[in-house]
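To the wet lab folks,

You asked to see what we're planning to order before we commit. Fair enough. Below is the target structure as tokens, and below that is the sequence we designed to fit it. If anything looks off to you, flag it before the synthesis order goes out.
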């Protein structure tokens, strides 16, 4: 009898939770971003405080909350990013300028976003790739030694997915911190200043960013980013694939300034 009561109690709680989730989604769908006002927030605090989505700041003078806004209706991000080498002695060995877009469907209350990024990178060859060995096994050729210090340029367009969450909010005791993990598949156009040849090929990027929401519209943050790319150029005569292929892999740090809508 006791076991039956526990099972019944468990089933009732599941049903109640499912009902709350259903009511929450119905309510949110009836309230587009423009319709969420102070009265809605005060009337349904359990809904708008779900997953710490309501950002609010306490006015110590009046004892009331000010700047209350609901982040579940964020539809997109646009941000400008500057990346640099993790080598603190020479951070300019790698420099990237990136424009990044994140977008979420209007009727989605999940934390997955579509991602699109455009990036331009300049770097020393030795900072983003290992010393190259030709198909003959010679890694000490004049071209290879010259390439190590030469500047490489990579133009990248990427598309993928991002996930937004708030694991560190409790650590910082502030709910304006958001974390985003982004993974994109990239297409790269590369210019090697050693032989002035153009390369192209695919790769990917994986990124973790920690952002701080300044207000309803703007945010800034820091990030760590890993990139990998395999590029090749057209063959000359009977040139082997190994001799016309470059592989890059590098980690960079970055800062970000963005706009939310």
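Sequence we intend to order:
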């Amino acid at each position: 009898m006791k076991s039956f009561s526990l099972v019944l109690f468990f089933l009732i709680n599941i049903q109640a939770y499912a009902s709350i989730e259903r009511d929450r989604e119905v309510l949110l769908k009836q309230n587009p971003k423009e319709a969420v006002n102070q009265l809605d927030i005060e009337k349904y605090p359990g809904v708008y405080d779900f997953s710490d989505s309501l950002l609010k700041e306490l006015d110590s003078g009046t004892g009331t909350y000010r700047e209350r806004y609901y982040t579940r209706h964020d539809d997109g991000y646009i941000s400008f990013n500057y990346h640099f080498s993790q080598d603190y002695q020479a951070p300019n060995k790698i420099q990237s300028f990136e424009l990044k877009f994140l977008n979420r469907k209007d009727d989605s209350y999940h934390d997955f976003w579509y991602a699109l990024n455009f990036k331009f990178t300049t770097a020393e060859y030795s900072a983003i790739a290992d010393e190259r060995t030709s198909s003959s096994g010679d890694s000490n050729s004049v071209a290879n030694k010259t390439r190590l210090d030469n500047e490489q340029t990579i133009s990248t367009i990427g598309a993928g997915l991002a996930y937004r969450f708030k694991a560190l909010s409790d650590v910082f005791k502030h709910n304006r911190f958001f974390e985003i993990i982004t993974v994109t598949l990239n297409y790269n156009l590369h210019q090697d200043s050693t032989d002035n040849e153009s390369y192209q090929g695919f790769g990917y990027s994986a990124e973790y960013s920690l952002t701080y929401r300044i207000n309803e519209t703007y945010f800034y943050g820091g990030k760590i980013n890993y990139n990998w790319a395999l590029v090749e150029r057209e063959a000359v005569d009977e040139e082997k694939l190994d001799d016309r292929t470059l592989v890059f892999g590098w980690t960079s740090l970055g800062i970000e300034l963005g706009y939310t809508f």
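Structural context that might help your review: The beta strands are 54-59, 64-70, 76-85, 94-103, 112-124, 151-165, 177-192, 197-213, 218-232, 245-260. Residues 133 and 139 are 4 Å apart (CA to CA).

Thanks,
Computational group
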